[in-house]
Specification:
Elements (H helix, E strand, L loop, with lengths): L13 E2 L4 E4 L6 E4 L7 E3 L13 E6 L6 E6 L5 E3 L5 E6 L5 E7 L6 E8 H10 L9 E6 L5 E8 L5 E9 L2 E8 L5 E7 L3 E6 L6 E6 L9 E5 L6 E2 L9 E8 L2 E6 L15 E6 L5 E5 L9 E3 L5 E5 L5 E5 L5 E5 L14 E2 L5 E6 L6 E6 L2
Antiparallel strand pairs: 1-7, 2-3, 3-30, 4-5, 5-6, 6-7, 8-9, 9-10, 10-11, 12-13, 13-14, 14-15, 16-17, 17-18, 18-19, 20-21, 21-22, 22-23, 24-25, 25-26, 26-27, 28-29, 29-30
Amino acid sequence: MVIGISHANEAGTRYPAERKSFVDPATGMEILAITTHPASDIKIYQTHPQWSHDGNFIVFRSNRTGKDQYFAYEETTGELIQLTDSQVGKICLSRKDGMLYYLQVDGHRDQAKALVKLDMKRLLEASKRGQVGNPENYEHIVTTFPDHTANAGGFSLDAHEKVAYLGIRHSDTKWSLDKVDLANGERKTLIELPWRIGHIQANPWKSGEIVYCHETGGDAPQRMWIINGDGSGNKPLYEEAPTEWATHEVWVNKDTVMFNLGGGAEATDPRRRKPHGITTIDVRTNEVHLYDQLPGGTYWHCAALPDLNFAIGDSKQGDLYLLDLINGGRTLLTAKHLPNGGPAHPHQNISSDGKRVLFGSDWFGNPDIMLLELP
């Protein structure tokens, strides 16, 4: 039984659709808000899968029940189904089957107690029938963690999904990147670090290759790193000059990581006088391409499909742009989804068919999740 699961388990509870469409007055684009509840609805971070393996559900985090839990949005009906009823931290969806892995935490979201495997497909089917039953029917503890273990940087599934990689905070001066065998729960430390590890993401196409970052909340002296799944070969992914600010890296195909060379928050920032914008690096050849620089500002996050025909970049005001990576040029898709700042960073993802963009928004005054159809 999962540690701390209450007898009044609410996992599997279904909520009616609340989605609604509206037209962006700046661009004329139709936007579908899949959540409109006054709660805080936050999408999964952009480095990780958003859709279930079959593409039928979008998974997100919400505090609509009074505490943070994960929910599935059913694309066909708009219904929302509660997936967890525990103290949950970071999660990762399987790309291969209907599994969802989450960290169970104790009080603070980062205090890790266990890594749990949830058979989301089975839970959703039982919810549809109204026969969810006990958590033991669909949840299994992969491994537990020692007391005072804190997660740092989330976790990620290897391409073959036999192991997970996760960051561990041991103290203010010691962090590690660990590997967990998903079959037997065995945990092994790959590397120890003197600084905070963040944004752990395994290559989704090539097993045994992990990108992670030196997380500072700002400009690290060397942000992006890459390491092999056996702990060997640790090295900077893109070696930063003192005048560069690399951030928000994400795998876009088996050989390529896309990131943003930031131009700083202020127009007077000296980094604005250097090349900055959406950038890629080939992890095999170290070939670097700078694709687009946002006039009068700086991009924040980025997303692209493996063919690298186009990308989606956002600004700190919550404007989303479609970037033509082949011929050049940019098109504003939707604007001002962060009118007053706030926690609903766009963290945009592109659907696997290349037709839609999923992003976070503060359009209605609180964090929601939205979709737009690409032109």
